[in-house]
Structure formats: C-alpha cells, structure tokens
C-alpha cells in the first residue's frame, strides 16, 4: 500500500496581502487596508514587503503605505520636499508652479493639502492619491500600534 503524504504549507503573507489589495474595493482612491497578519509584524515588515512587491512590479508606487526613501509610514514624511514632483503633479500647484503644503493630523486621520500662494487644495488625481495613501498609512500605523491605540485615535 502506498500512502501519499502532503505537507501543509504555511500561509504566505505576501500572497495574502496581494490578494487582499486586489479583492478589496476602496473609496479612498484604490488603496486598501493591509490585512492584520502583515501589520502585526510592524512597519519594518511592511517596508520590506512593499519594497519587494514594487521591485517585482506587483505594487505601484502610489499603492504604498510606507516610504522607500525615508523608511517610515507615508503620512510621517509626506511633507518632505522629496515627495514633490512638478512633472507628475504630486504635491504641486500647476497654476503657481510651486509645491503645496501638507498638514497631517494623526489624531483625527485628516490630511490636507493646499497651495501656499492661493490657498487652493489642488485636488488633481495625483494629489487625491497622495491624500488617500496618507489616510490609509495613518490607519495602518494605528493598527500596528494595537487595538487600544486605534480605538483611542478614532474616538477623538
């Protein structure tokens, strides 16, 4: 008698994350919440995973919740001049040809962007994507900090 033994493989968190991002519909510009299994391992794990997925072409730069350059959650460094691009329109006022300012309120998860010259919010598609990614980054960082912190932030 021949008995076939199949080993049960551990779930692949990277594959689960990709599947989750594809399956989830979002009203925040197409960026979806990461599953708890990835967040439980913290920001460093998220950075490494997003770096790998971006390098393999499975994750667009605009889909990241972390910053490859600053090695932080996106909302923690979006105000840096590094994130300004007049070519693509990210954090850029086309009318005045200047960088927009960004304000991130982690407590209320509110992210705003405005031109310092005219006060316009410049909500083109690129800036909407930046704002959505920052909001998702805030939620992801709260989930990483634990349920008590996340509840405290959302209760305010």
Structural summary, described in words:
Helix 5 (125-145) crosses helix 6. The protein is 40% helix and 12% strand. The protein has helices spanning 13-23, 36-39, 43-55, 74-77, 125-145, 147-155; strands spanning 66-67, 72-73, 92-93, 98-99, 101-105, 110-114. The chain has six helices and six strands.
List the helices and strands and how they pair.
Blueprint: H1 13-23, H2 36-39, H3 43-55, E1 66-67, E2 72-73, H4 74-77, E3 92-93, E4 98-99, E5 101-105, E6 110-114, H5 125-145, H6 147-155
Antiparallel strand pairs: 1-2, 3-4, 5-6
Largest sheet: 2 strands, antiparallel
Shape by Cα distribution: globular
Quaternary structure type: single chain
Radius of gyration: 18 Å
Bin the helical content.
25-40%
User: Which ranges are low-confidence, i.e. pLDDT below 50, for 5 or more consecutive residues?
Assistant: 3-32
**Please, how many helices?**
6
**In what range is the share of β-strand residues?**
5-15%
| Sheet with most strands: strand arrangement | 1-2
Distance between the termini: 66 Å
Rounded mean pLDDT is: 76
The ordered H/E elements are HHHEEHEEEEHH
How many E strands?
6
Describe the structure concisely for a colleague.
This protein is of the alpha+beta class. Helix content is 40%, strand content 12%.
Provide keyphrases for this structure.
156 residues, alpha+beta, two-stranded antiparallel sheet, two-stranded antiparallel ribbon, 6 helices, disordered N terminus
